[in-house]
Amino acid sequence: MVNVIIEVSKYLLALLMALYTYWNFSYFRFHEEAAKDRVCARQIVVMFLLHLAAYGVLYLKSGDSRAVLFYLAQVIFFGAYLWLYRLFYPRRSQILVNNMCLLLGIGFIMLTRLSFDKALRQFLIVAVAALITWIIPFIIDRAWQLARIPWIYGILGLVLLILVWIVGNNSFGAQLSLTVAGFSFQPSEFVKISFVFFVATMFYRSTDFKTVAVTTAMAAAHVLILVVSKDLGSALIFFLTYLAMLFVATTNWLYLGAGVLGGCGASVIAYALFSHVQVRVAAWRDPWADIDNRGYQITQSLFAIGTGGWFGMGLYQGMPYKIPVVEKDFIFSAIAEELGGVFAICLLLVCLGCFLQFMMLAARMQAMFYKLIAFGLGMEYGLQVLLTAGGAAKFIPSTGVTLPFVSYGGSSILSTCILFAVIQGLYILKRNDEEDYE
């Protein structure tokens, strides 16, 4: 009987995820707030049903009563979070709140399957992050002074990256984290946000050649420190985000072309200088040539994605633990193996929906400072999703970045919560301005 339930659950989970994704995009068709609210309410119902079905399977397969208690704790958290956000921020973007909760829920489901201890630790981090970032929309809506301190953002971010380079902890050949009072965190996750604020503040003040040159030099310093720390995934995100923000601020095709050419040249130099870059590129080009060594991770990822098919093997029916660091860089492969290709594609479409919300908000903002913040944060989010899913599917070389809200990692969770809170603050600011104008 349990096997029958698990087999049926595969199709149920895929159907629920597809329904959620359909409403995620149908939301864009409506202009009346009442219609949008109805769509979001349906999403919430489907999200809780998906969550219930997945944890029902997890309990049936594991027989661990802790899974039931953990599920109930999540239901209370998500219910309270949705209600309190509605209470304190009535002009919020409800679809972004829904998407955040869905992605976190999927992350909890997969981490519970992979490692209950890590899932519990992730839940505690999420609860703390939600509490810390609760005030951010309020601050964004009221603090114009944020546009007056560009060098605070730039210098503070650069100092943190230099500290990681000098005394950071080594992880898989790269210096990524710092340890303070027994707690380890990855500064680059937070510097991504300060970096966007720095660039937005500088270009809000001026886009003349001198300002562009100074800002480019500071941006290049950020990228260079990340490169020498061998955090190439973050370096790529910083570089592409800056290039896009520069073009949006100046609409200068010469800057864009020079940046693309410079990036291509830097990639060739990095390939020649760093052996681990050569290993990753070789593993990407032909992982089957050295399947037991450098190609092992990507081949296991491809096996997992291929084995899952459209509807997956079912929770606890696959072998995601064969993929090294599956709970971080390659959690997308685990999702595709056990929950299926339909579920995994819908997950990416939900992330795409978040990205489109960011870009639409950026297009609506009048002040260049706020426009660039929304655009820059949206670019960082979209690039991170692309790099994670693309690396797992061998579309691009693996870069070692995590899937926002889904992968295991405290720094990633907190920084993404901050990112979404800033976007919510901008959304509320825009709605307030529109209602005042009316």
Structure description:
The chain has helices spanning 2-26, 33-62, 65-88, 94-114, 116-133, 136-140, 150-167, 187-205, 209-228, 232-250, 253-273, 275-285, 296-308, 331-338, 341-364, 368-392, 410-437; strands spanning 169-171, 174-180, 183-185. The protein has 438 residues and is mostly helical. Helix 4 (94-114) packs antiparallel against helix 15 and helix 15 (341-364) runs antiparallel to helix 16 (368-392).
Range of strand content: under 5%
Total E-strand runs: 3
Judged by helices, strands and strand pairing, the structural class is mainly alpha
Give the uncertain stretches in residue-range form.
none
Radius of gyration: 22 Å
Mean pLDDT: 88
Number of helices: 17
Alpha carbon gap, first and last residue: 60 Å
Question: What about the largest sheet?
Answer: 3 strands, antiparallel
Give helix and strand order, one letter per element, not per position: HHHHHHHEEEHHHHHHHHHH
Helix content estimate: over 70%
What strand order characterises the main sheet?
A: 1-2-3
Report the principal-axis shape.
globular
